[in-house]
Amino acid sequence: MRNAMAAEWVKLRSIRSTWFCLAAGVVVSALGAVTLGGAAAMEGAPVQATEPVVSVVLFSQYAALTLAVLAVTTEYASGTIRPTLQAVPVRGRMLAAKSLVVAPLLFAAGVLTGAVAALATYLVLLAPVFPTVPVLEPAETAADLLRLGVFHALIGVLAVGASAALRGSAGALAVLFMATLGLPLLLVMTGSSVAVEVSLRLPTFAGMAFLESTDNLTGGALPYPPGEGLAWLAAWTALAVAAGYAVLRRRDA
Asked: Around Cβ 226, how many Cβ atoms within 10 Å?
C-alpha cells in the first residue's frame, strides 16, 4: 500500500491540472467569500469572516471534484491505467491508494483555501465603506477551517469512487454536478415535502449541514445537526467508493 500511495502521489503532483484545480479553488473561494461577505456587511450585520467562505463551498467544491475526477479518468483516457493495474494488480488496493492520496491533499487544500478566503474577506471588510467591523473569532475560525478540510476530503473521495465507476471525465463530472447541485435544487423547487427531505440529505446539503451553513439556497439552517450531515456525506462517499470498486472488479481496463 505504501508503494502504491507513493506512485499515486507522483502521478497526481505531476499532472498540471492538479495545480490548476487547486488554484481555481483559491480564486473562487476568495472572490465568492469577499462578494458574499460584502453584501452581508452592507446590511449592517457583523460578519464572521469564515461564514461567507462556508457559503461559497456550494460552488468552490467543483475545483476539488474536478481534481479528484482527473486523478482517475486521466489514466483511462491515456491508457496508463493498464500499467497501473499491472503494478498494483489488487484493484481494491489501487482504488484505496488513490483515495488515500486525494483525501489528505484536499483536506489540506480545504483548510488553506478557507484560511486565505477568510483572511481576504476580513481585510476587505475592514474598509471604511462597510458600516460594521468584521469578526475573526479564533475558536470558530479554527472549527470552520477543519470542517472545510473534512468536507473537501470526503467529497474528493466520493468523486474518486464515482470516476472509477464511470471512467470518463465528462460523464463523471456531469453525474457529480447533478448529484451535488442539479438534482438537489430540482427537488427543492418541486415544493414537495418528501422531495425536499430527500434533497436535504444528498451530498452537498448534507455537507452544508456539517459545515453549519445558514446561507445555502434553502433559506436557513439545515433541519438536522452537523453530526447527521457528516454521517450522510460519509454514507454517500462510501456508496460511491463501493460502486467504483464493483466496476473495477468486473470490467477490464
From this structure: 16
